[in-house]
Amino acid sequence: MGSEIKEKIFRVKGTSVQPYTCKFVRDGGSLRIKCDCPAGMYGEPCEHWMSIFTGEDQEYLDLTNDDISELQTWLDESDLDEALQNLLYFEGHERNMLENLARQKKALRGRVMDILLSDPQP
After folding, report:
1. Which of 42, 51, 81, 110 has its CA 20 to 30 A from that of 20?
2. Based on the domain organization, do 5 and 38 belong to the same domain?
């Protein structure tokens, strides 16, 4: 007996006049997700479907909270689970590194200004 194939298709308001369409298909441990936004058309993970798992705000046009909860369970133990978790982990580290870099640049700029202002003029 084979596994049951589940499918959900919904629309998301994006930057285009027309809403984007996202399609989730779960077949056993396989989860396939496609969005027809520009990023999705190139096979890139996009904010329109990733927001289902990250909780970021999106304007879903035909998706209920129950649908979102169900889709979140589809990720568990799927072939995309580890890859998405790794991506989110490293994106968090990237954000932290960029924030630290900005703080260090600001500190250096402040130190350079202190040196310039305290340097006696000839």
Report:
1. 81
2. yes
State how far the Cα of 88 lies from the Cα of 104, in Å rounded to an integer.
24
Domain of 88, in residue numbers = 80-122
Q: What angle do CA 42, 20, 64 make, to 5 degrees?
A: 125
- pLDDT tens-digit profile of 18-33? 999 999 999 988 999 9
Cα separation, 23 vs 108, whole angstroms? 48
Please report, for residues 21, 35, 67, 69, 107, the alpha-carbon distance to residue 8 in angstroms, rounded to integers and kept in the order given. 10, 12, 8, 12, 50
Task: Examine the domain organization and report whether 61 and 90 are in the same domain.
Answer: no
> Full-prediction pTM beyond 0.85?
no
* Structural domain total, the chain: 2
My answer on whether 20 and 63 are in the same domain is yes
Distances (CA, A) of 78 to 8, 52, 71: 16, 15, 11
